[in-house]
Design goal:
This protein is 30% helix and 25% strand. It has 467 residues and is α+β, with helices and mostly antiparallel strands. The two termini are 29 Å apart.
């Protein structure tokens, strides 16, 4: 997860533009936020814990003036949720000078690189793989940023969509597999346009930028006074964008691989209805992320769609809360059933995914208390049986209710009358973009696109019973 934004343009308030772009990416992380600005000579930085509105006030933004900016909102996968782990992360290269780094992804060989750098004299202040990235850049020889990145990235394995701020430019890089999205755009104006890069196209829309294209896997793009300069740094044998971006992570109004995600999620629901019909009186979505698939399920099945749960708009995403207790408490605060709609009805409840299962179990209990006579749970993605190593907070199979269990065993844990998942083939039909080899779907089938360190894999594949 994590959301990143980069802006370059003279004569505009780059910090405010970065702030508004970041605001559109709040769904990608809620733990901390920061903005770094370059004025041509130096870099200034403001970061803090909490939501974007809690971190930034008018006076803090007013103090960030320059020609280039990068911004970050954090969802932690490595490193705890503390201020020193907030990004962008400042660093200094001995030849190229001051810089700041904003990272979305996860480096699976960061421990090995960290040990090598410590032997070379590097000092670490955090547990972040992002700091490993920054110290690697500091300790890699290079006479230009292209030269430096070519050398450094040969040592890195994993997912990274990154922005590097220099005093006068923004550099965007994306790993050769393209695990995490990164989009380019521009704000038209007289003279030179303002160049923009962001995790999702919805952030481009928010700042009034026109979408141009995605940063290609393995590509470096420099945004500076010369406009936009692109260079291919790395190649891989395949592309592997995280398919969970299509299912849940990205906002439904964003576009990935020339596909509007709202449309793809409706198609997931249609495919789910064809694969797993259920005898029911109404279809409801588990708001908000399950709603597009629920609409598609209702359209295909002919069972009417109704709102069955009302969501408080002031509660954030429960899946990306760092503590299980906060996730579960968030469910009860966030959702309230419409009892008159549910009472005496057989209900199909559609959600985008089923991860730990505790949230779904509470929702099924809530629907029964509201009077639903039957609850048929339908999931618009396949069972998640394997941990993610590429930047999703699924640390091990211990956190996955479907790992090592049959669908019937999961159903009993959830407490629904029936449970069914969308197949991998149905998911790929719904996404409808290229072949299966263009996506990472390892959380479903265990086919990781890059080699995973043996000890890391052993640690994360350990199972424990669900009670």
């Amino acid at each position: 997860m994590c959301g990143i934004v980069g802006i370059h343009g003279r004569g505009v308030d780059v910090a405010n533009l970065a702030y508004f772009g970041l605001f559109a990416l709040q769904h990608r992380g809620q733990e901390s936020a920061g903005i770094a600005v370059g004025d041509g000579e130096r870099i200034d930085l403001h970061r803090g814990m909490g939501l974007i509105t809690q971190v930034f006030a008018p006076d803090s933004l007013a103090g960030l003036r320059g020609i280039a900016a990068i911004a970050h909102t954090r969802y932690s996968t490595t490193g705890s949720s503390r201020l020193e782990n907030a990004q962008p992360l400042p660093f200094r290269h001995p030849t190229l000078g001051p810089a700041a780094l904003a990272h979305n992804g996860n480096l699976i060989n960061s421990d090995a690189i960290r040990r090598e750098l410590e032997e070379e004299g590097a000092v670490f202040r955090t547990g972040l793989d992002t700091e490993v990235f920054a110290r690697l850049l500091e300790h890699t020889h290079g006479v230009s940023w292209e030269d430096l990145l070519r050398r450094a990235l040969r040592r890195v394995v994993g997912a990274y969509s990154c922005l590097i701020l220099t005093p006068d430019s923004v550099i965007a890089i994306r790993d050769p597999y393209g695990f995490r999205p990164l989009s380019l755009g521009f704000i038209p104006r007289q003279g030179q346009p303002v160049q923009v890069v962001a995790s999702e196209t919805c952030a481009l829309d928010t700042v009034g930028a026109t979408f141009v294209r995605d940063v290609r896997p393995g590509e470096m793009v420099i945004l500076d006074d010369h406009g936009l300069t692109a260079t291919r740094l790395l190649e891989s044998g395949r592309h592997a964008m995280c398919i969970f971006e299509f299912i849940y992570f990205a906002r439904p109004d964003s576009i990935l691989k020339n596909c509007e995600l709202e449309e793809a999620r409706v198609r997931m629901g249609q495919e789910l209805a064809r694969e797993h019909p259920a005898p029911a009186d109404l279809v409801i979505g588990l708001p908000d992320s399950g709603t597009p698939a629920a609409i598609g399920y209702a359209e295909e099945s002919g069972v009417p769609f109704r709102e069955g749960l009302i969501k408080s708009r002031y509660i954030n995403r429960t899946f990306i809360q760092p503590e299980p207790s906060l996730r579960e408490a968030g469910v009860m605060l966030k959702l309230n059933p419409l009892r008159r709609s549910l009472s005496g009805r057989r209900v199909v409840a559609v959600d985008d995914s089923l991860v730990r299962g505790t949230t779904s179990r509470r929702i099924v209990e809530m629907l029964r208390r509201a009077g639903a006579t039957e609850v048929h749970l339908r999931i618009a993605s396949p069972p998640m049986r394997y941990p993610c190593f590429m930047g999703v907070d699924i640390g091990s199979t211990k956190q996955l209710v479907a790992a090592g269990r049959t669908v019937e065993e999961v159903r009993r844990f959830i407490g629904s009358d029936s449970l069914a998942y969308l197949s991998i083939q149905g998911l790929l039909r719904a996404v409808g973009r290229g072949t299966a080899e263009q996506f990472c779907r390892a959380c479903f089938d265990g086919d990781y696109p890059v080699p995973v360190p043996q000890q890391l894999e052993m640690d994360k594949l350990a199972l424990e019973p669900v009670t």
